[in-house]
Amino acid sequence: MTLTVDHAGPAWRVAFVAVVAIAVVAACTRRLDGSGPGSATMPDPGGCYALVSEGEQFEGAREFINGPRKNASLEDLPFRANWRRRIRSVQVGPPAFVTMWADEGWRGASETLSAGSREPVLSKALSGRVQSLEIGCDR
After folding, report:
1. Model-level pTM greater than 0.90?
2. In terms of Cα–Cα distance, which of 62, 135, 53, 57 is closest to 94?
3. Distances in Å between the alpha carbon of 79 and those of 39, 60, 62, 76, 85?
4. Which CATH class is domain 49-137?
């Protein structure tokens, strides 16, 4: 008497379909624009925000920081987010303007971005060094 195992039976088909489904879901979680993980915070409906990204070209982790606001430190933003020395690219909302400083307490090298601007690569003085910021709104 010989015992044969049918590897193409229903259990294998179910496992194969499950693996394919997991792979499809994992592939779909990446944003269509290739920007990586999204934000825990929704943007201000009036457009008063800065969308900061961890990587250049808006890649990697990103977060909406809504204004108007002044943050002497970026260590404790909403949802306990810590963006100290992580920002490498920024998109500014249509009515907003953003000033970033390399040191806490609004000190050190700084740069102001105008309303609606997109900075895919921050200057060497600020890229990965931003420790405080201010977001103002023209509305």
Report:
1. no
2. 135
3. 10, 18, 13, 8, 18
4. mainly beta
